[in-house]
């Protein structure tokens, strides 16, 4: 989805529009002031500096050695309301790599580091569920080399983070169509889910080979089977029944309060279709590997200023 | 004399604006024009509050905005316009407000059916999309009448979502899909037939059948959508028949195409642009299924304040990214 960039006067904005910058990725926020961030000068410098974190910290993981998970709660944010469930479409790895004349795999590696940081922040600040869109059913059309790299990256990352998750009380769940995944990855996922199922500090849901539409269709199939088996009457089918069969039934809070999409695209791309009915959407111009604590705080700050009415008063 | 001069001046200005608008649209038409634009008409009550007017006046101002935007869209060449007029969640509002909204809708539907209205000017077919049985009888009857009267129109389409949520639409589509599959399998004689008409209210079945009728009528028109629907439903039925041969007593699995063809919105292609006014950036249970690849614009203007400039800007952005989005859609 794309921002509107004409200098049309702002009306009824909730917050002061952020300052403009000279960065190419700046969005003139005259129309969408409070719905996404634009780059400040500090972000510009950060963006232009090659982010070597991913390359230098290769192999380091969240909570490694003397580092602890805990990140202090930012002063700019209020304690309430915080979203209980944050969803993220981690877009922009490919473009990040292209801008640096790197292979897409470098972008995905950097993206994995950004995800680790995100997990750390969510766990520190009391967010209960973090769902990330790692791989869509539509992504299978990408070059085989890239897809194979992504599958092995998922496996390596889960493997390297399991001990941290166990130590820090993070539960991992994976949703999506497992039938197309390599068997070694399926085994790794099952192992990780089993080892972390008792953890309750933060639930990390990773959507791999996932499609919002197919999630609804598979839920409908489950419901249809129950009707056929006589467990359920046709007239009993309602929204609650379908919701119970969606893949997000692995969590107590299946519907995100806040969805963040990076890289400036203004659409949902078949992610968590049903679950996003009342979710506040936040679009950030930063590419995913560059989305860090500052950007997340801005997203949460924007969320805290939204007025959610759910159709009523 | 003074009044005459004022009248002439305003006519001249109106003519000039219209001319300018046609020029702008002429330039825009050199690029791809969206086939379907959807609007979440948010901000009427805030507009009334801001301008110290009664709440009802806010909604009336909203209706005027709707007519203006329809005119702009249809002039530009947009064939389908969908608007979120009333959500099932809006029933939670004060009964007095809900009642006045229903009254306003009924009154405006009557207005739209007048000879000189935009409906006749552009040959607009009306669809009222949603769980219409939730509405009071007078307003439901006026909607059915409007759909019947405009059924023969082919040039433009206006879909008004009333008593609508995406979740309700999906539940309904699932129920219908299941009944179709069940009843198709009945022909094998192993499973008892399900009552086709829902226990709730026959209106919904009628509305759905009407939608299918309109879809078939549309096959004479320019859209692919009804063609695809018929093809996919043909394929679906063939698949069901074939599966039925192999597994007597087993129900074939519901497919994506089954659900899609039973959606209320199956009468139109997916929107190319979704615009929500008043700066809120959420979907509020509107067209969740249909807008998954559609760009969302969130101008800060309240709905009664939306103008030509917002539409032009949305279309320009659509054109900028059209080729990229088309490539993405082909990959899906």
Q: Which stretches of chain A of 5+ consecutive residues score pLDDT under 50?
A: 1-67
Instruction: Output the strand order for the largest sheet of chain A.
Output: 3-4-2-1-5-6
Report the count of strand segments of chain B: 6
Structural class label of chain A: alpha/beta
**Taking all residues together, what is the mean pLDDT of chain A?**
81
| Rg calculated over all Cα atoms of chain A | 20 Å
Order of helices and strands of chain A: HHEHHEHEHEHHEEH
CATH class of the domain at 32-165 and 271-330 in chain B: Alpha Beta
CATH homologous superfamily grouping of the domain at 32-165 and 271-330 in chain B: Decaprenyl diphosphate synthase-like
Q: Under the CATH scheme, which architecture of chain A would be assigned?
A: 3-Layer(aba) Sandwich
Instruction: State the CATH architecture of the domain at 32-165 and 271-330 in chain B.
Output: 3-Layer(aba) Sandwich
Distance between the termini of chain B: 65 Å
Question: Which two chains have the most extensive interface, and how many residues on each?
Answer: A-B, 60 and 67 residues
- Tally of contiguous helical segments of chain A: 9
InterPro entries (chain B): UPP_synth-like (IPR001441), UPP_synth-like_CS (IPR018520), UPP_synth-like_sf (IPR036424)
Family (chain B): Belongs to the UPP synthase family.
Enzyme class (chain B): transferase
Organism (chain B): Arachis duranensis (Wild peanut)
